């Protein structure tokens, strides 16, 4: 451009002065109620420069931003960002995420960016607007008639940013040229972690992760500030696993950029730039009409806004596959409960990164299957909550974690009033949801027994009494709770919670609730507690839809559509994407119809429930419902999961015998204890386990119950959603039992006889399928002298004679059954008696008559 | 020296004239010989008559049961073996014979040949009484024949063809040949094991043993009234195969040695009902129609139902019978 004009010089001086005056960062006062990792206060101003060089301060705010967690973050984890002192927002849109949040005034833009905000760092590692992730290119690219190009009047922007960009060298060929006299354009390319630069001016020049139908919904948000200047939001983290172009990881530092939009500070008296908004503070903009550009989040990258940023440094945890990458040893597989997933994710690096420990691997599977693998010798340890129903081997159970299940919910209040933060559930409401007793649509009222039931949970008077203020528009997703299709101890606990409640049991038994709602007859008198929840309803809806006429599928089963892991449920709730499978889809008009998942719920009308683990709920920042523990009606007690309520509950867990798991008698729990609390134990054989494996299991139990119980986000620490097990306090009994079980497992001198020195593991698990060759089951006195153990599992001891048993000292025991011989002899006798007796009888009878 | 063959096409020698065909003349029918009037059969008192009929009926039923178990059952087993053999051959050729995983009970898994006894049987999966009516059965929670580990093969010793009637006569060193989807395997018999005999030595890693299990009895009717199990152990010669895994970890009680399969009771009840109905219908029909019209129709139905009933009832007997 030209040389400095006096006006520009004046502007520069003012700018420098303003920076010096307002850019003062005050240190965060310590000692806030909630633990926060980041807290900062800044004074933000909007100051215009008039043509005569004088400045007018339009607005000045002292804004404080705090973030609860910034360390060891994981993919899709949600952190809590809150602020105060910001300018109240206006024109609130129903969906604040991604491009949908652009038509708001004075929001707080929160973005995840690669790089650090440190002037001393090399330029490539600095955070810049070019390294900030936006889910659409429209949040980066600006084009409009020259008069509307507000960014061209930003007093803090560089000349280059204010210029007619398409005339500058380096304008990408992919981006079109508009007549410069009429239209102005501004590019903000995205620089990917790989170094690729995406011009981001059209659908074809963007990073792959920002496509419109991307797998994950947008995380970048233009959040709303309330009338009192406060606001808060759960912001979802994306690591390089979810977003490779952004590329945040434990090695690539990233920054959370929080920009409270104050409005552009203008260089001149451009009317578009001087705008202060069309909407009243606190109002909604549900019809998504355009807002004043100068105060919209669309120009977050313009220097006036960018300089107001709060930069929160983010630290990411090792990726979930770190152990596979960093440790080449063979893993020691432990199988079972999904409740432990978040803990084992944090624990694993504490084992695999140390040479003196083993490579710990937790494979999720139904607890009963894991116990069976213990029996066959395919697993060394299993994570379970309930004792094995039947086991051919003796097991010891070491309490390893205290966590539980929760009913996660996402629900929006009507009239754009934000999210519901507290939900109350009773066992009977859970029973209604699980038994598919809500018809979901009016067509299903033809289903016998459901004629007079409310359509969905949110039209049920029992629910409305507990949770007033929600929308009462019924929908399929509101008639169900997303639950597990697989057998799991979690389902045992959930159904045990129902079984312990007289109201829920009366409902399941067929009694109507006080409002006349009845259980779905398909589920009446179902046995609870039970390990899995079956799909019993077979009602096929009469529908005019072609696909439903062609595919005769039970409708309520499609609505419930349980999934096979708790993680999938958590992610469904996180995305507010119900798993209701009633959408008719086909790829082309000639393809056959199939049922698919319905669309994600729109912000503002979300309502979804899911059964989740408390560890997942904490990681994904899901809200969990308060569950009723005692009382009925208005005087009932509802308890939310927390360390305190779970500690109260776990103090009541009991063991039937030493070495057995801790379980709950759910009918007599303390009303202040969280009823979803569960204890996860590590189960392993007490005899016949390879010495090395036994040592690994014992080491795992000891480590997990000591250093693994220190709460924190780091490697080897205990994540949120778990109650630490300590040697004192309510978990003392668990701690003692775990240490004892570790010793029993390490010694391998349980009731069963084990060879004194275990030879190298016989790889027969692989050789013959699940039939591993095992140490001998206890048989009449025989201890094999050395040699390879060789009893086939799964056989009761007396029958093992015909299989294989110990070495020289064992003897064959024949099975005996006289039934066959007796039956054959008796039949033979009858046949002979008949054949011989009949003629005899005849001759006798006739002779007597003749004489 | 040459031999002159008579020319079959040569014209007939002169002088040889064929005699004219003789007309068969039927001998004049003799007048029927007068039959002496049969003496009226002395009638029995009613009670004795009922008892007599009942005894005959019981004898017929018991006789039928024995016939079926030991004679007709053998026929049906032979037929089943033919079908299984064809199926296994086809699977071996197509390389689809099972090598592991979950195999449907009743499917063929191996061909067992014992040359010294002349036994050649297709082994089926499963050891429930019903599976063993078709042939020897492989116990489902053990390694498949040919694979490392211990395989148990159960076989009947008396009924349904008695495929394992004489396996207890095997001597140490006799050979067993097993063909599965994984190849041919040769086993050498270690010996016959009865109650009190020492158990065989421990298996080394990767070794394989097959144990044939059947039953035997004692006394004059030993061959048809077995009471206890007898085992024949044979070690694999050569290298064992490995399987893909996924095998069941246990079997129901009905598949253990000398166990009966009570799950057949409903089927038995239905068969007996059918039999009763068929008999009743026959009896009614006999009153209205001549016997020569009724029996050709009824006999087939009654025999078929009696057959099915006996087959079902036989499953309530020990599976190694």
UniProtKB/TrEMBL annotation, chain A:
UniProt-listed SUPFAM superfamilies: Periplasmic binding protein-like II
Key words, A-Z: Signal
Protein name: Solute-binding protein family 5 domain-containing protein
Region (Disordered): 774-818
Signal peptide positions on this chain: 1-27
Annotated organism of origin: Cellulomonas humilata
UniProtKB/TrEMBL annotation, chain B:
Record keywords: Hydrolase, Membrane, Transmembrane, Transmembrane helix
Domain of life: Bacteria
UniProt cross-references to Gene3D superfamilies, sorted A to Z: Sortase
Segments for region (Disordered): 1-43
Protein name: Class E sortase
Listed transmembrane segments: 50-72, 268-287, 293-317
Pfam families (alphabetical): Sortase
GO molecular function terms noted in the UniProt entry: hydrolase activity
Compositional bias ranges of the Pro residues kind: 9-20, 33-43
